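Lab notebook, bench 4. Still working through the backlog of constructs that have no structural model yet. Next entry is a single chain of 667 residues. Request: give me the structure tokens for it.
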Amino acid sequence: MKKLALVFKPYISILFLRDLKAGVILFLLSFILPSVGILGSIAIISTILFAEIAKIREEYIKYGFYLYNSLLVGMGVGFYYSVTFLTVFLTVILSILTFLISFGLNRIFIKYSLPILSLPFAIVSMFFYLASFKYTNLLSNILERKPVFNLDFPFFKEYFISMGTVFFLPYPIAGLIISLIILFYSRILFFLSILGFYTGVYFHSFFTNYYDALNSPYNFNFILIAMAVGGVFLLPTLKNYIIALISVMVSVIVVDAMEVFFNFYSLPVYTMPFNFITLLVILLFYSVGYTFFNYSIKGTPEKSLIAFLSNFFRFGGNDVKIHLPFSGKWSIYQAFNGEWTHKGKWKYAYDFVIKKNGKTYKDEGLFLEDYYAFGENVLSPVNGYVIAKRDDLKDNIIGVVDRVNNWGNYIIIKSDEGFFVEISHLMQSSIKVNVGDYVKVGDILGKCGNSGYSPEPHIHIQVQKNGFLGSETLPFKFYDYIKKNKLYFYSLPKKEEEIEATILDKSMQLRFNFILDDIYKYKTEQNEIIEFIIKMNDKGEFYLFDGKNKLYFYLHDKLFYFYEYDGAESYLKEIYKIVPRIPLINKNVIYKDVLPLDIRIKGIKLLIAEFLLPFNFNFFLRKEKYKKENLSIKSNYGEVYFSFYEKGFEKIKGKDFELRRVYEKDN
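Model written out:
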């Protein structure tokens, strides 16, 4: 079955999709021109066999790009030549050459995080057509093209011909079927294909007559560029749609220039303009760290955008995140771009103090010991190595600041994620760790003091670019904090607000420390037994599996959450809606979460929302309210109850169903 999947996957990979059922349809469609279908199939099989001879591991070829380049080469031979022993042998040799070039280019391109696209096909095609000038024995094999069936129609004919040309089937019926496949799986890709084609044609018509522009055999490059740039490698957003159309217009010049140059040697241009423009765009936006670059390509642009927005709205995106450097309740004395010292390149910093009855001190506040923050433990906000510290400076008496040693006693930690955290104004001789020590979140680093440029005892914390004292600061967010019994995730409190640090409930953490192949059984109200099994994919991602559907989850420090669902309507999907995240803390709180579009709506509403989402992210942003109590979490979608002793859920109650845990002793 796996080998069969490898045969069909290249067909759908050409269209940037993944569903094998579409691959089967495209495989069958290729036989409209039998020589294209036959030699394309031979090219794939030859490549798979050669990969096995070379002992190339299956995971290297299952993603498609090694195989679809060989497929394109085989179909290209089949487009020009009939099926004979000579052309079959030639296809086998060319497919092996394509595989070698694909493997070599991938090893080079991977250093720059670039895909090889169909560049190996374009290169091998040039080699073959140059060499074919000397292969006189091939002349008797030139194909007299007659498709098995065709259907001519006037509307959008040129667009469909260009779409069919992607598979060496320049016939309206082939293009129509391919377009319908794209439309079925992705409205965004279909929209981009049309937009790219007609943008390229109309822009081209500025420089030549419209008929020639409309009927150029290389217009399929416009389709591929628009889909790749606007929906695959860049996330589908309005801005990226514009970038895609600009890329298409640039490619018009490239197509014409290459056509003139290649025609001198009687060579077809094929996908060279698509590869050239798309690779340059990918390299540019990846190198500059573009926010809407698609770092995690899903099955469709719709799924990629939903995953990105889910990460952004639910988990703070790719922003730097740190934990609070204290326990208990503290108030914000100064936030980002504060009115006193948080200015210029040091504007991304927070100062914390402790207040009681509106004051930071007791009595008259004349002595350090009068200040509630003085001497309180300072905790590590990250996991990482201590790279610098100082703790020999005396704590200032109230009313005096040290203008020479602004930072006072400090500690700098290089986090496991690569950024640096500096905590300043610590108490003299209180730092409990040394340079080179590895610290974890929550470890005691020292005590809150009043050293350096500090008017009163407080904790100063900042994230910075480099590891030296006073480095330029970077924006960040706090993982979580509680304010007035409301739990906030990946956010920043405002000046004067009082917040409380969350405390890990280890018993809650143990309840969701699932182990591979654990089985959790539940009984429905109809006495049907439902099983959820803990599984792991080849990327190391864990998920709940009911035999058909997958619900991916992650356990991180004080939070357990579900982040992706793969499947149809099921109890697992309902669980995602009821409780998308579970704070593993020892306090009853109210919090909010954002459910992905494909979890909370379905059918035609989902299709419309997915298509409109690139134009307005507010279609995604609908916050649901959740209430955590001692052993349960309630939401508008239902309620879950935790077991007191066992891992997992004791009971799951939805709007129209109820699942109760079944234990072995109950059987």
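Notes after review: The chain has a mean pLDDT of 92. Residues 238-263 form the longest helix (26 residues). Flag for follow-up if needed.
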